[in-house]
Amino acid sequence: MSSSVHVDASGTFLTLVDGTSRPLRFHAVWLRDNALDDQTRAPGNGQRLITIGDIPADTRIATASVAAETLSVTFAPEDKTVAFPISWLVNNAYDRDKTAPLGWLAGNVTTWDGARTAPSFDWTAVQSSSSAKRDWLAAIAELGFAKLTAGPTTEGALIQVADQFGYVRETNYGRHFEVRTEVNPTNLAYTGLGLQAHTDNPYRDPVPSLQILYCLENSAEGGESIVVDGFRVAERLRADNPEGFALLSGYPARFEYKGTDGVWLRSRRPMIELSPDGQLIGIRFNNRSSAPFVDIPFDQMEAYYAAYRQMGSYIDDPDMGVAFKLEPGESFIVDNTRVLHARKGYSGAGSRWLQGCYADKDGLLSTLAVLSEFKEAAE
Known about the structure:
This protein is globular. The chain is about 25% helix and about 25% strand. It is of the alpha+beta class. The relative contact order is 0.17. The chain has helices at about 30-35, 85-90, 125-130, 130-145, 155-165, 230-240, 240-250, 300-315, 360-379, and strands at about 5, 15, 25, 60-65, 70-75, 80-85, 120, 145-150, 170, 175-180, 195-200, 210-220, 225-230, 255, 265-270, 270-275, 280-285, 320-325, 330-335, 340-345, 350-360. The chain has two domains: about 5-90, NE0471 N-terminal domain-like; about 120-375, Double-stranded beta-helix (4-Layer Sandwich). Helix 4 (about 130-145) crosses helix 9 and helix 6 (about 230-240) crosses helix 8. The protein is built from nine helices and 21 strands. The model has no long low-confidence stretch (mean pLDDT about 90).
């Protein structure tokens, strides 16, 4: 079936029938704002060259036609004609059913529990092969974590991990930090104690969205790493206690860190973060850094704490966690806005030395998009 177009009598929108989906409507002002011509978009980088104020307030569609899978639209009062590929319009259509449930997930996200094994990729392959690097980054984007194996056991090797897709995010902990037993530590991470699964630095705005942990030595007994999918935890809570889910996503928790001189970090964000249209986009959970909750109404505080306890019980559920012991030269990345990480306690015998750093997910997703586009072009 060939594509066709109908312009509403008002000229404020058109309806496109492309034969592959139901009819799709597009407003005149949306089409004009997203015009693909080189007076509207900069050739090369595609950035918009006009402001909303440059578009006439009375913009309407004067004529529209379809030929060779291209929609041609002439706008009044500018008398400007612009061409749109039909495939581009279908991919960017907004005239769709938006009745997704509260806490819906993006289509490229797969949640998991303890039945999953840690996705693992070879250091040398990721360094030398664009397809291996793409697969590694795609696993992190989809699952929120992945391992690298057979890497060097040299200090600072974790920086090379971040260099594969972006940049290190420096914090008050430095460009990178050591995870090993210390005397009088400033953070419980630097002891041999076990740690409940948590997201890092919930007291920051924005939080570092990726964490890299790299193993240099690990001969101590115990100390296995555990990761838990916070999105699967949230799904489980929503199914079992929708009112509790609404409380933890509807009211901000507070987090605070004041461990060293000159540092006092505070944030006010919900434990389960949703976008304005209800998409599940983030988890903040860290018992060590929780400050007093003061933003929940008195008559809902007990229910809030009950939901908090229930969420914590799911996080602690052994069936929810994937456990693995890092060997020297191995590392893993977690999406710190989604995946919680924990550590089993370890003994003083032997040694355990990890280095950690933070990075940001936008760099990873940008690199993944470029590699994926290159693959599609090659195919």
